[in-house]
Amino acid sequence: VQEYQAPMFELAVSVLQTIHQTKSYYLLLDMGREDMVLEWVRTLLQCINAGSQPHAGPQVLEVLNGLIGDESGATDSQLEVLLSHLVPPKSQENPAACQMAQAVLRSCEASVKPQLQKFLTTLILSPISSNSDLHQHCYTLLYQLYQAVPQVLLPVIPHMTSEMLAEDAGKRAEATQLVCQLFTVPGNRLVCEYVDVFDELLHRFKDAEVGIRLHLVEFAPMLVAAAGSSERQEKVVREVAVRLQDYDDKVRIAAVKAVCQCARQLLAGPAGAASGGTAATACHPHQLGLLAPPVVATLLDSQQEDEAAAAELGVMYSPPEAGLDFGVVGAAAAAGVAAGTRDVAWLQDMLKAVCMRLRDTKLSVRKQTADSLMAVFRTVAAAGTGEQLAKYCWLPARMLLCCKTDVELRAHLVEGVLKDGLLGPQVAPAQAAAAWVQLWLAANPMDRETLLMLLAMRARLQGDALALAVLRRKLSGKAKDPEAAQWRMVQRTSSSGPPSAARPRRA
After folding, report:
1. Could you check whether the bond before residue 7 is cis, i.e. omega within 30 degrees of 0?
2. Which end of the chain has less neighbouring CB within 10 Å, N or C?
3. How high is the pLDDT of residue 342?
4. Contact, 155 vs 121, CB < 8 A?
5. Percent of the chain's residues with pLDDT above 70
């Protein structure tokens, strides 16, 4: 059966088919020879490979079901032979046998479930007394079993709480990784069903081992997606935010990424596209397009150096406690919120904690912080309403202040973060116009005047730059049609929307 290209392969498959049809394996079971049954199970699993599985797989599966799925139940020895193909090295050497073992477990789940649960519990709690070599790959085995027969692990998962409290750091790390993998399998509700295990998992964010903390922080966005309730989501994000002050810079970088990614998941909503389309009709794209992000009065950190920097930049400073009165007028913002756009108030505190990493001693942490915070703002601009956009406009303002105060970070901010505008290079012109219209509608009269003045200055600068580009093309002899060249230039630079300036001045 193993050599599917051999002349006797079809005859061997027909013999297996006959054994299944006549149920001849019952004679083997009645003999009481456990060693012979074990050898049959081992041999049938070993003979399955990528070549023979399509032809002999169904016959081998039926015979194995008859041997293992008997009413008397499977023995520990049979289970160990079967489970050994789910873990390395056998699972890597022969993936077809691994799939066959999973198929047998699914087919015989009812008959093997009690003995398998007892075997797994002994393997976790008393690996030495189990007399099995599988204890070295216990956590890998549990994950593979969850993929095949998840109901078998229901009484086994609660034991993972004690495993995550083990003194051995390696054991804690493997148990933590397994619980993270189980909780983040799409479509399950393990987080809701095993609250104690979830709470102990959150405690591992404070583990003494850097590797465990780093692994949990990297898994945080998936845990937030699988949390199932806003309370659990907030718990996860707050635990990650504590790691923003970790003594290891790798953990701090991962925490910055995780908090901002969680914020993007929670802030993104289906109403962004709808509200964006509505706002875009209020103003022609040619009037509000290629407008770079303005420096407006924003919510800044209540630090003395920020206040001094804001004064040098000529912007109005407002501490976070006071905030800005953006006075949302318009039913458009309220309609956007009602349509489903999410705004999680406690995320403001988490993002302000992330902002503090812009003063980190490590330049790599500061760079990652700037990139992640701008990604959050672009997500809000793409999916949020004018009210939401006004609440988060302090994020780009903080970046602009860093351009002034942080010499080391300035080049990265100018060339890597702000080069393509606040809304990013991928934003559509209509979407960009919608974002700026929403921000204008959400501002009070004084802020509206400042915003329009800065947008007009930006439009004039873009017009001059466009005129220079057209003239250079003419001088080089490559511009056959000035109007067509001008329009192509507008399209290439429209990452933030179309320009509001008039046609460029000619030389």
Report:
1. no
2. C
3. 53
4. yes
5. 78
Token readout for 475 is 């001088």
Supply the pTM of this predicted model: 0.72
- What per-residue confidence (pLDDT) applies to 316? 47
Render pLDDT for 262-298 as a digit per residue (tens, 0 to 9).
Answer: 999 998 853 333 333 333 333 333 333 333 333 333 3
CB 473 within 8 A of CB 479: yes
Q: How far apart are CA 213 and CA 209, in angstroms?
A: 7
The per-residue DSSP string of 237-279 comes to HHHHHHGGG-SSHHHHHHHHHHHHHHHHHHH--THHHHHHHHH
Answer for the pair 372, 416: CB distance below 8 angstroms, yes or no. no
Distance, CA of 16 to CA of 306 (rounded, Å): 79
H/E stretch holding 419: none
Nearest alpha-carbon partner for 505 in 489, 486, 481:
486
**Closest residue by Cα to residue 318 from 304, 301, 342:** 301
**The residue type at 408:** E
Cα-Cα-Cα-Cα torsion 255, 258, 260, 261, nearest 10 degrees, comes to 170
Task: Please indicate whether residue 347 or residue 69 has the higher confidence score (pLDDT).
Answer: 347
Q: Is the pLDDT of residue 155 over 60?
A: yes
Mean pLDDT over all residues of the chain? 79
366, 378 in Cβ contact below 8 A? no
